[in-house]
Amino acid sequence: MIKINHILLLISVLGMVFFNYEIKKNYHQKEKEILKLNNLISEKKQNIKLIKAELAYLSRPERLQSIAKQQFNMKEILPSDIWNINDISKLYFEKN
Amino acid sequence: MENIKKIKFKLLICSSSFFIIYFGVAFSMLMIKPQEKINKQSNLKITEKKSQIRGNIYDNNGYLIATTIRKYDLIVNPSVLRKPKKFETELKKIFGNEINIHFKDKLSSNLKYLKVKKNISLKDYNKILKIGEPGIKIEESYVRKYPGKSLASHVIGKVDVDGKGISGVEKKLNNELSSSKNIHLSIDSGIQNIFKQLLLEQIIKFQASGGAGIIMNANNGKIKSIISLPDYDNNINNNLSEKQVFNNATKGLYELGSTLKIFTAAMAIENGKDNQLIDVSSPIFVSKSQKISDIKKINFPINLPEIIVHSSNIGTAKIASSLGHTVQDKYFNLLGFLDKVNVEIIETSIPNINKQVHISSLMSKSYGYGIQISPLHLAKATSVALNGGKSITPTLLKTKIFQNQNKQVFSTETSRKLRSILYLVVNDKNGTGKLAKSYYYPIGGKTGTAKKLIDGRYSETENIVAFTGGFPINKPKYILTIVIDGPKPQKFSANRNTAGWVVAPIIGKLVNRIAPILKIEPLNLDPSELGLKKYKIRGATL
Asked: Fewest CB atoms within 10 Å of the CB: B33, B178, B198, B511?
């Protein structure tokens, strides 16, 4: 009886050692992956920052103004373009 | 039998513990390996240190004004290269023609350090490593970028090579920015751009040497736009002249002439001296060499509104002398003319004030001579005078909690009377600021022309011209202050270089363009309907 018990114990210990090893191996692999991903994230974040800076550079007011004027023939908003909704309805009723 | 069993049992325990220890050691040895690999990799790839990256600066609408970008420079040690020529052709394959041809000689030389290319990507770096040459590495560095270029040069300021702020907001808020906090400014980039264009146009037209302009919220002191010209591109570090870098709007001190009559008028109203008639027909001789006179000669006694509308030096001086030194000093202190303006940049100045207790000093200070202040001081004081008399603290931050916000400097009634007078300066046919009129918004303000002080003497030809005021003047939301330094007389301006001809014409244009952006409805009504008192202004003969 004792013999069988001891053999079982030994096997279970060995099994646990192997299991432990597997977990640790897995853990280190994941750690590596995390590190890689973190580096990737940081790189992508930097890229996003760069792109945002580029967007700000391209949408600086000075440039937008010249594009709006030259390419699209747009004009700046004037106070005469702003209408009160009541004035518009008044005009409409006066005409009719 | 019993003994043998016991021995066997002991043997089993010994052998099993041996196995456990043996495998344990073996596995732990196995496990060290991948850890070493990780360490090596982390050395290779540079991980981001959070504390190192400086915070961004945004404007009021979230437009990116300043940001920090990481970049990699390719460094080669040419002395250890095995096949420099092959290496060069490989580099050309990767970068195309972007690479500098002059490296040819340097790559085969015995140099120890050569910066081959700035700003490369990690992908390209991996490709270069695959060429298989020794002595290749990358250097990581951070650069501060200002996408808006010269949008708000002086306010934002600059950083040094180590990324530490050396001027403007970058320096004053360096602690916040270096702990990677983002800063949101109250500046509106669109308005800043419009304002700068108009101001620059006028400066060029009148061949002036510089200028400054401020648009500020009259009630909470938030600065919407602040300009100092000439300016510079924040991304460029060399070849900047002292004049370009100098902040005229906050650091420059000027004698701003008649614009300061606003405050003398406010003191007079506050002390109940606004109804008396004053004789301004003859000049005042304060001393043998000093005479106070007016350009327009007015033969009849006039009241306070007329003094301001005609911008009479004699009248203002007489009012000041009836008020006395103590009143003037008290209000100059309350208006902040004795201290620096506490704002989020370092470039501020303490005003220069003539402290002589003499009638000539009192009189000249009342119309803006013998007192040198910055345009920001003037903007701050103007908003106090027009917003109902409450003191404010100018700020460049989008959100800021104020403490002594509601300290009353002038009474609301004084402020209302003052607004009526300043409305007339712009809208009355006799006013000095007629050209500032807008047909859509009621504007009120005061022009000021002062002789420029050059080497301790007042120049006969050079002027400093200014305008300060607010709109819509019935209930001012924004304060406008503009100063132009040294405009020359032009043919189209009938050979004049006074504020009424140089600064006033851009005020109306500016308000028409920015008011719709600031969500202010056009308003063109009778002064009495605006809650402004109607004063009668009599004309003057020249």
From this structure: B33
